[in-house]
Amino acid sequence: MNDKLGLPVGTTLDRFIMRKQEDFPFATGELSQLLRDIALAAKIVNREINRAGLLDVTGAYGQQNVQGEDQQKLDVIANIRFIRALRNGGEVCTIISEEEDDAIQTGNTRGKYIVAIDPLDGSSNIDVNVSIGTIFSIYRRTSEQGCDGTMADCLQPGVNQVGAGYIIYGSSTMLVYTTGNGVNGFTYDPTLGEFFLSHPNICTPKTGKIYSINEGTYNFFPEGVKQYVQYCKDNEYSARYIGSLVGDFHRNLLKGGIYIYPSTSKVPKGKLRLMYECNALAFIVEQAGGKATNGSERIMELVPTELHQRCPLFIGSPEMVDKAEEFLKAEV
Ligand code: AHG
Ligand code: MN
Ligand code: MN
Ligand code: MN
């Protein structure tokens, strides 16, 4: 039996990646291997998360990251796991991570790729058994192979991504990714230790009835965002906010909806990080027919100037993002 893509039901992630590579006869397979490395680290992190309450890995690590956030133990563990897998894989010359002050050189100077990663997203939800995630972006280096990746390699705009994805450790664990030719989702079967294709060719609804924003900071929202939130209420939309970007994004991607992390008078650039969070999800949502902006500009066209830079995010069903932008425009 074949699914909508003509692939046999029961397609594993490995087989799917292999099939895709066959479409590109001149490809060397390094990107495919990189995706497999990420999947391997995801399985390991998934195992740690599942047993978090039994192992001594919940709670704070006792240090702050460069963003000024208190790191959780699992933030640190996930960071180590992904870096180790990418270093061992050999395809990546440089990694940038939410949890690291500076770029990490893997020593694989012939590696063609740069990876930007949020190793554990939604870390405030670890200790309370709520969905968390991992987010990654893959770029091709622009410098010559044979030496470390440069800052210019790391600071590429989102339009240069050759791949992006996320893992959601939720009621089931899923890996969702794109290499610029649609979005596919894989569900993890822990009994077999394999991801299986479960959500082929994900397309997000044009519009929806879910809005996701931390309304606790309403008083500090720009006027246009306040008005859009009021519009959502007037139209009896459902408010859904987990506080794990991956979880909120994944739900809205499948059901239709909008996620907003706006600039506020307290945090003028918002909270989310362009390189580790916004770009990857922007690539995925666009590939699924959605939209991602900072309120006026396309996320993927923003030119980064620093590794840990933040930006406001309006992401989801295209008609909903357009509507929110209308309110923002009317404000000025
Ligand atoms: P991280 O755990 O990687 O630091 O990311 C946390 C982010 C994101 O997952 C979530 O949507 C957002 O922070 C929640 O922020 P607020 O608590 O300010 O709403
Ligand atoms: Mn964090
Ligand atoms: Mn995050
Ligand atoms: Mn994180």
Automatic annotation (TrEMBL):
Biological processes, Gene Ontology terms: fructose 1,6-bisphosphate metabolic process; fructose 6-phosphate metabolic process; fructose metabolic process; gluconeogenesis; sucrose biosynthetic process
Every Fructose-1-6-bisphosphatase class I N-terminal domain range: 12-200
Reaction(s) catalysed by this chain's protein: beta-D-fructose 1,6-bisphosphate + H2O = beta-D-fructose 6-phosphate + phosphate
Gene3D superfamilies on file: 3.40.190.80, Fructose-1,6-Bisphosphatase, subunit A, domain 1
The keyword Ribosomal protein belongs to this UniProt entry's keyword annotation: no
Predominant localisation class: cytoplasm
GO cellular component, one term: cytosol
Keywords: Carbohydrate metabolism, Cytoplasm, Hydrolase, Magnesium, Metal-binding
Metabolic or biological pathway: Carbohydrate biosynthesis
UniProt binding sites for Mg(2+) 2: D118, D121, E277
Cofactor entry: Mg(2+)
Pfam families: FBPase, FBPase_C
Co-factor binding comment: Binds 2 magnesium ions per subunit.
Residues that coordinate or bind Mg(2+) 1: E98, D118, L120
Quaternary organization: Homotetramer.
Family: Belongs to the FBPase class 1 family.
UniProt cross-references to NCBIfam families, sorted A to Z: PRK09293.1-1
Name by which UniProt lists this protein: Fructose-1,6-bisphosphatase class 1
Naturally occurring in which organism (per UniProt): Pontibacter flavimaris
Upper lineage: Bacteria, Pseudomonadati, Bacteroidota, Cytophagia, Cytophagales
Gene name in the database record: fbp
